[in-house]
Hints:
The protein has helices spanning 48-58, 115-124, 128-133, 156-169, 187-196, 209-218; strands at residues 3-12, 15-24, 28-33, 36-42, 67-71, 74-78, 88-89, 97-98, 137-143, 146-153, 177-181, 200-203, 221-227, 230-235. By secondary structure, it is of the alpha+beta class. The chain has two domains: 28-98, Ubiquitin-like (UB roll) (Roll); 115-239, Cytidine Deaminase, domain 2 (3-Layer(aba) Sandwich), CATH 3.40.140.10. Strand 1 and strand 2 (15-24) form a beta hairpin. Helix 1 (48-58) packs across helix 4, helix 4 (156-169) runs parallel beside helix 5 (187-196) and helix 5 (187-196) packs parallel to helix 6. The chain is globular and about 60 Å long.
Amino acid sequence: MYLGHAKGVHYRDGIITEVEDNVVLEETVSIYYNGELMTEQIASHEFLAELGVGFVISEGISTSIDKVEVEEEAIYVTGPTRKDTGTWITGSSGGASSTVSPQVLQEEKTVTVSPATVEAVIAAIQSDEWLKTGGLHCSVLFCDDALLIRCADIGRHNTVDKVVGWAFLHNIDLRECVIGCTGRQPTGMVRKVANAQIPVIVSRAATSTKGIETAIKTGITLIGFARPGRFTVYSHPERVVFP
């Protein structure tokens, strides 16, 4: 469901060859909440129920879900709405956004990570689909140093929604989890994780000033530029246990 194929002409070191490459399928979905269209966005057609549930949770629309149904390219989610949701701007690709501030982390259990944990998370986000296409983002969810779920998508925001939705549908306490992402971590990505109440983000990519500010305000440990043997902690380093 992720891969398509395209013919092309490949040039390398003066040699021209005809090739047939694996390329990412670009498809669209519509997400409805209580019958109202929230967003139309580009998404890979895997884990669609999880995408819908995760979008509602991570965008701060609701903290609980009653039901989710998928009909072809439409996802229908129902449930209660947060009283402080604010106004909404429907959008595409990156999804919709609310005027309400992201939730501050309500942590009851202390989650810590070691450099070994960070390396395990980064190793897990290199998906087979990315190796074939170079065009898919990936997010993973870890709990107690164990990989729970890996989700790939053409959109980096969608990968977060999918792992959040999967965890919610499987009754996983996200306050005990670590999320790993291939994509950049600006404020829109960090606020998703805050609304989902995940205390630690590990990213292979960069963040931004607003992303760091959001992580500080919401109580999230934000780790960026993670590679084997090195990473940078931008907020709440007290959760990182160094040897």
